[in-house]
Amino acid sequence: xxxxxxCWHFLIVSFYFLSEIPQGSAQHALKWSNLSAGRVAVLxxxxxxxxxxxxxxxxxxGIEFVTELADPIFRxxxxxxxxxxxxxxxxxxxxxxxxxxxxxxGTCRLYLNQGNWKFIDYTAPSGIRLxxxxxxxxxxxxxxxxxxLDLFVNLNGTGTxxxxxxxxxxxxxxxxxxxxxxxxxNSMxxxxxxGDHLLDLFVxxxxxxxxxSGASINVKTVRGRPMVTGRWRNRIKIIGGELIEQGEPxxxxxxTKAGGFDRxxxxxxxxxxxxGKPLKDDLWDMSxxxxxxxxxxxGLTDIYVSNDFQAAxxxxxxxxxxxxxxxxxxxxxxSSHYSMxxxxxxxxxxxxxxxxxxxxxxxxHHLRMTQMSIMSPDQTHLAALDQxxxxxxxxxxxxxxxxxxxxxxARFAGLDAGDWAWALAFLDVDLDGWDDVLICNGHIxxxxxxxxxxxxKSAPSGAKRKSGPQYPVLKTPNxxxxxxxxxxxxxxxxxxxxxxxxxxNSLALGDLDNDGDLDIVVNCLNGAPLVYxxxxxxxxxxxxxxxxxxxxxxxxxxxxxxxSTTKDSREMxxxxxxxxxxQNIKTFAFPEDYDSGVIRVxxxxxxxxxxxxxxxxxxxxxxxxxxxxxSRPIPDxxxxxxxxxxxxxxxxxxHPPNLSSVRPDWExxxxxxxxxxxxxxxxxxxxxQAQLKDTLIMRxxxxxxxxxxxxxxxxxxxxxWRDAAGKVHLxxxxxxxxxxxxxxxxPLSKSAPFxxxxxxxxxxxxxxVGMPPMPLEYPLSGESQLLFGNKxxxxxxxxxxxxxxxxxxxxxAFADFDGDGWVDLIVASEWAPVxxxxxDKGLLVEQTDASGLSSYKGWWNAVSVFxxDNDGDLDxxxxxxxxxxxxxKYLHHxxxxxxxxxxxxxxxxxxxxxxxxxxxxxxPIDGLGRTEKVFPLIRNVYQTHGSFAKDSVNEIFEKLSxxxxxxxxxxxxxxxxxxxxxxxxxxxxxATAQWSITNDLVACDFxxxxxxxxxLCQNDLDGPEQxxxxxxxxxxxxxxxxxxxxTALTSGESGIDLSSMQSAVWVGDANGDARPDLWVxxxxxxxxxxxxxxxxxxxxxxxxxxxxxxxxxGAKIQIRGGISQPVRSIHLDDGQSGQSGNxxxxxxxxxxxxxxxxxxxGDEQSISFPSNALRKIHVIQGGKVxxx
Length: 1188
Prior knowledge:
This protein is mostly beta strands. Helix content is 7%, strand content 37%.
């Protein structure tokens, strides 16, 4: 009877599981067929589902498990909140991926996959006994080379444990002595760091416990200084009177040929800093994650370590034979402050692996407003090794430039926030060929809650931990971001079903149903694991490896899959997830319109295997071995061409004066969130008439828009200042008459931008003088001026009143945009569009709205006028702050700055705001912690961060009894404006140009191909902490195609690689070779770059008749006949850092017929080209032409 009941029970259970099998997931054991380079099996049907995930009920799958962390245990050791991991792999060689779940205070469990989404608890038969062991990180990897998966488990307080597998899922404890330590290990990874074909182990140690748990710390005075003694002496330092907690040294364990492990030293020269100097001390970092992978794709295994709190992340670049050098601050200048996890993949399919780390910045308005918000933590107490790497409290996305450096663009990509994130994974969820992003988050205690923090801080001593205010559990939805293919990502967690609110600490990827796509298992604190079935049905292939020697999984090998139109490559890794380990399998999207593809594998020893005729719907195992590998190196897809770069750096022999320290704008006015003025040198170009080469002459210090006009014996200057009464003034005139000593009567002065041209064609130069942004009453501004020249100098006329409402000006330019022979005016300013003023026979009339410019309100820094599309009229480009700022997420609508003088002290307060589409109103971007530094009386109205977070801007200003006044921006893109007659069409510059702010720019035909190119000065390293640095630029060359589009050159192609802040640029010919050269003001240096175009140009100088004879300002020039050539315009203004009338470098004229010139007074002139080679043409209006 008992036997019968058991039979019926088995049948009922079997029927239950079969009835619950999702479509397309029926039991499918892989049936392999041998191939010359390995073997192949048909995958299970993927069904017809949409991309995303189905959350399976763990208990119904046979997985009854909870990682418990009871409150009393947590209070004894806060570090246990980091959670426990999960590892996936086939432990019993039955063809199905199994699951191992680590537990802190419960029992670690192994679940065998029976197929049909059924699992059985195999913990007891497996021989693994881990109960109440504080298990954290786990891996299933073959360490002894017998072809089965062994088990690694990190145990808080005792180090790492190893169990060896007998091939049938039965394990024997075999921990080497070197694995044991009194540490708090978290994540781990395997890789062959020294090329001996043996896998080495890296263990990321965090801390056995933390003083945040209320540990007792002994302090003694030693030689007059307080020092921690006892157990915590190495982990807690007293710096500036504060207790600063450190972590524990990480462990690199090198496998020996005998199968043992030796712990590597940090101080024997194996590890050197970025200057090449050996480390003097162990690194006591609080490490959370580690990745062992070939980051720079030189064939060597590198190590990236994600660190919590003070220490910056460590990217250890393998120099060969297992010796490592820390990446330089120039190579990777930013890292996350609370760096939890890392993943690595080629996100933009350029052949180079990019990397991302996750931090704790929330995606949700209320949490951003109520949680701690400092973006750039204080680093003054850090060790020298960490002083040069800026840490930011947000996710970072590092795009590999392919030259050993990275551009950090998380804000540009839309990936800067993922809440209190733990686990991170790149996975092509929808199988479109682009890796998407998955983030798990949450916490059992939201210690970032500012209201609770302040209440606990003010609570009586001793009451804070138990009876005082308690931090709430932080439950935020996990999130997925879809890769749109252009380094932009869109949140799709809800759409894809990846949005559970459990406290999700770790995840691992594996194919649980043999259909070729990767499913997910998430280990949660105090909750059941989340098991996700991948529902994508798009074509795919899967690849696994069988390596040589003891590296049986091919760890460190790089797999490339290609069709004629697609390319994708991935490295086989071991471990590397936060606390977790994926199954050793890689999935590739297979284009629907192709029958077959090619798999190439580059093995760790440099040999490679190739398999052709790859079909969708199959899994391939590539086998390393003498019969199917080749010793020839795999073709390097990333090898740069042998072409010379466009520029080569030379010694400039220019030593600019040191820039004096200037009081930041936000110290004058706390409401200012970024630098609105800059200090820089002033310089001009002078040409040697005989040698036809230019010299850059420096003229001293000045504001960003301070390029001094040098016209014969005249030098002009504009100055703005605010007097003691708060009134702003603006003056312009000869430099000798305009000085700070003679003009400034108040504490605050700035140089002002100006431009010159003959507006009314009377033969005298006229001037537009812009009022720059001025602190104290910003964003309000004084009036700009239009001054008309005459024999006595410059004077203002009544007709110039149109300039009264133009302020916050950074740059301007005169040019004849409508082709009527009269110079028009464009003005670049803040909180406004680029404004356009048409010249109606000497009278400037604003046509901003009519010309189609009014929709593009920005913080415009500079403009440059040129013919971008070779159609014979003038276009212009405008420099903006780019898309890699904290404001980008809000610019689907606009960003506003609301302002008022709440305490009537003459200094405007303000807050920046975003528009909530759901609630149809505006909300502050910054929380109360930042806002109370700006509005001194706001704490009288809002006592808590939560109450402030609930209110809209209207409600806040109403409660403060303040009027609602605002300015706004609609874009921060740097943009090209193409002239279409009566209107301009706006087009953003290429994506790379939006990775950073553009401070200045210049248009020039650098390669002399007849098309105008651009150079952009980039980066801002001086912003306040809420803005952070913007440093993803290196000085960008955009190569023009002659049709209004551009191609961004890499630093290798351009020859320019400037990680510093570039503030100004000048173009000329420094060596007289008739090729354009660049002088770039970068930080406190002048960098000179000689052009190396394969073509050689010639020099054009123009001399108009009349009073304006010295400058030819406003003249237009074009080479006509033959191929289409752009029209060029001569400018003279302080913000124009490009070529001026003293000599323009023109491209070769083969096939051209003549040179056409339109002079400033409207006269036209044509000059035929000689048959011989040109060196220089000097044209006198209506008269002599010198050609040589």
